[in-house]
Amino acid sequence: MPALVQTEHLTKRYGERTAVDDLNLTLNEGEIFGLLGPNGAGKTTTILMLLGLTEPSAGKATVDGLDPTRDAIKVKRVVSYLPENVGFYEDMSALGNLRYTADLNRIRPKEAESLIQEALEAVGLEDRAQDKVGTFSRGMRQRLGIADVLIKRPKLVFLDEPTLALDPDGVNQVLELILSLRRERGMTILLSSHLLEQVQRICDRIGIFVKGKMVAQGGIEELGVALSSSGNGSTGSRVVEVGAEPLSEDLIKKLRAIKGVKSVERAQKMILVRSDADLRPQLVQAVSDAGASLLHLRLQTVGLEQIYFRYFREN
Amino acid sequence: MGIVPVFRKELASHLGSRRFAILFALIVLAGVSATYVAAQSVQADLKDHPNQAFVFLRLFTASSGNLPPFAAFIGFLGPLLGIAFGFDSINSEQARGTLGRLLSQPIYRDDVINGKFLAGMATTSIALLSIFLIVGGLGLRMIGVPPTGDELIRLLFFFILSVIYIGFWLALATLFSLLTRQAATSALGALAIWLFMAIFASIIAGLVAGAFYPTNDNSPVQQVLDHQTLQENIARVSPSTLFGEATSAILDPELRTTSGLVLLSQAIGMVPGTLSLDQSLLLVWADVAGVIALTAVCFGAAYATFLRQEVRTL
Known about the structure:
The complex is a heterodimer of chains A (about 325) and B (about 325).
Chain A (H helix, E strand, L loop, with lengths): L2 E12 L2 E12 L3 E5 L6 H8 L7 E6 L8 H7 E4 L11 H11 L4 H14 L15 H13 L5 E5 L7 H18 L2 E6 L2 H7 L2 E6 L2 E6 L1 H10 L8 E8 L3 H9 L3 E7 L2 E6 L4 H10 L3 E8 L3 H11 L1
Parallel strand pairs in A: 3-7, 3-8, 5-6, 6-7
Antiparallel strand pairs in A: 1-2, 1-4, 8-9, 10-12, 10-13, 11-12
Chain B lengths: L2 H13 L2 H31 L9 H4 L8 H15 L6 H6 L2 H5 L5 H35 L5 H31 L3 H30 L8 H15 L3 H13 L12 H5 L8 H32 L6
Helix pairs in contact in B: 1-7, 2-4, 2-7, 4-8, 4-9, 4-11, 7-8, 7-13, 8-9, 8-11, 8-13, 9-10, 11-13
């Protein structure tokens, strides 16, 4: 798949401070990429550079084959941006706000009406179209922001902290919506967040961003492996939880005997089996050989949380 | 052209705003009462001396006792109108979080500030034109003397100059809205400059002139003239002074000089009569150019500031 966004050594300095440092990022068509990092890591600055709203100090970016610094207008025709803490004109209706966006995109009024209607339905705000935005809750504003992003029918969407300050219900709605943008409209999405759990839920690939530097990028699995292999040298990176009844010494002995198992330890009502390869079939066999019934079997994945804090600590 | 939607939206929200209703009511009230009083004095004067020229213009310049004339009201309240539609034009978008969304649409950045400025100008022009028509209609009914073509052209010049003068305050307030993050701070800043220009500039000009050329009743003529010239030149820093001088000549064809001091020797040979429009304009062209230049400089500063500002700090 062709790269929709590509940056090469993209750098932004504000005086002495380097906000984005030598960033190389590739975003493929149709993927959801999460820029994960603490506040002030340079996520927003990166997005602003990709939109041509801020000029890079060094390096270059390409968005849909265009240079955002030179062709800002063309880039902004195919890219939508949902800023952090998005705002609307409070004394105008939701409809009025979206009409203004359509007008700014030079969409004909007739076409705009159906686009707006469709966008409002997509975010479930069609009943509140005539209401002033001043009466909207935080979650509704965020959903209206997503409707606003849809108006220009973009190829690419930048979402800056889309779930910030939302209640759990609002977070779920917004994440679902983001997934549906790709599913139903084939959009490519770049989102920034400092909340790893949410990024983990919806992103295909993740870039971990700390102090302007991209310290790691890839799929969640890849990041986990990278973390483990660069870890403290101990082997047995895969951990399988085994729950069985009865938990006899015989069972433990049988598990230890499996080829490739590095260690077996009892943890409360479970047994943790460490190995280098995925030995789940053999483990199941061993449990049944011991005459026990299998209640639980799970391959522990390295959580993003571990990855996240690990990189934060290193930097 | 991204300027059209910005202009359209801003104009609609200005005209529908409570701010507009309040200011419009204030200026209509001031204008109508000033004209009413002026018309009464003109009526009385017409009874004693019929067949006068330029009667209609006197509706805008005549005052009687308590109320200043209409032209002075525009000079004083016009800035308020300009400031009201400019003081929060950028910083409120920033505070509400709409600026990022606006700038991420496919428009040029200057479309935003140009559209907003033009919408402000259009709003104040609409307000001003309505007031002119209301006041003119009222005056016409009361004195019953229609304006001549010459008077209408003079009024047109007065109108255009007023729009540009209010444009200066609009541009100044827009500049403040870029320099301060709080709308309240920017409003106070612009109002402070307005008060200074409208009231204190002439007082300070008098003080400074007095320090350089102290005068009393027995001072030599040259000393008095120097004092007067310096005082007037310092006061001309204020756009309010420039506007006041320019309107006085445009609206009063009998005015020969904008100086407050005419020597007896100068007055002696003077033939009573009126100046033609081009002569009146010649008298105050420097003031007119000054008002236009100040407006252009102020808007230019706001424009450059807006285009150079980093979006993060906007």
